[in-house]
């Protein structure tokens, strides 16, 4: 064992240890020394560059119980990935106690893949942590899919925890501030509703948005008022509108779950039925007048036709009277008619 260790000691150093004068270094030994010095210099430069660029980040990850291979950070930079974003997200997940499963959990490779796909890594991790704290089932794959679908996953989780209120109709997207519906007795009611919704994370991808919820709720309110026999019934019990709308399951195939529908304001508008009846009566009057005028015009036309017929008959009588003298003269010429002598 001693001989084996001594075989790795340079000759001059071994001679000094044995108390003998050192031999002059050879050319091979000089080259080897230069190579070793250059290798040590290169290693020192590489180590200095690594410590300058990644040392603080690597130490932060190591002390945060999220150790990362130093070469992994170098390869991240080569793949055009910002190591700071990936490491911060990993540290945040580890400290929050989420994504610990090595197969389906949060790893640097999966974070890099989501980053290269154009996703927002920080918001995905924040959403997973918020969902974990609120006891909502949300894994990394679903959160990443929601983020890549163009939805704000963190806002969706917050809406699941704290439901938000939507105005129906939305004053920012509609020129009208109320919904107009007419009961069976013809009285118009103007209604403004508040719809409380929470995000349905399982249907967030491909589910309809707030505009669909507003349109469906508006349609349901108009239908509920239109089916009421009298507007006073709606005024006395506005909750009948909410119950009728909620029973229709308007949140099907949407990204939200309707918690409640509250009638914030309800006012009486015009008496549409009376106005329509008045308009109908006026239209009937105009129609009758038009028919009477038509009959009058027909009578006048018929009178003129009769007058023309009388004039025609008179002309025929005159022609007939003109034929009498001619016939008498013809009879005289032919001797068919003679005059009787007087006395």
List keywords for this structure.
Tetrahydropterin Synthase, Chain A; 4 strands; elongated
Topology:
Layout (H helix, E strand, L loop, with lengths): L1 H5 L4 H8 L8 H37 L6 H9 L4 H14 L11 H9 L4 H13 L6 H9 L4 H9 L2 E5 L10 E4 L4 E13 L10 H17 L4 H6 L2 H8 L9 E16 H63 L9
Antiparallel strand pairs: 1-3, 2-3, 3-4
Provide a compact summary of the structure:
It is a single-pass membrane protein. It comes from Botrimarina hoheduenensis. Helices cover 60% and strands 11% of the residues.
Task: Please give the CATH class of the domain at 164-271.
Answer: Alpha Beta
Uncertain stretches of 5 or more adjacent residues: 1-11, 13-18
Overall pLDDT score: 80
- Fraction of helical residues: 55-70%
How much of the sequence lies in strands comes to 5-15%
Q: So, the CATH homologous superfamily of the domain at 164-271? A: Band 7 domain
